[in-house]
Amino acid sequence: MASASNTSAYVDALYKSKFGREPDAAGKAYWTAQLNSGAISRENVEKSFDASEEAQNRAASNVAAGVAAPATVPQAADFTSNDNDSSNDTVEQQII
Description:
- The protein is mainly α.
- The chain has a domain at 4-61.
- Helices cover 55% and strands 0% of the residues.
- The protein has 5 helices and no strands.
- It has helices at residues 4-19, 25-37, 42-51, 53-61, 91-95.
- α1 packs across α2 (25-37).
- The model is unreliable at 88-96 (pLDDT under 50).
């Protein structure tokens, strides 16, 4: 069984990856206690998070927390190389 500190860190990471936020105190306490007692596996906790309305809404929006969608979507032509055309020199910088 994982240590309590490892379980706490795991729950924190799960909230961040699935919900894009820090865990609320009650939720963290519940999932940490469930894992520490052996009542549920990490795999099943993750499945529970995935099945939650919050995770499904976040996935449906297809936008990770803190990441803005680009103003324009790069097209294949944007990545062609033309040594005489300096306009393509900054494509990589624009995408990053």
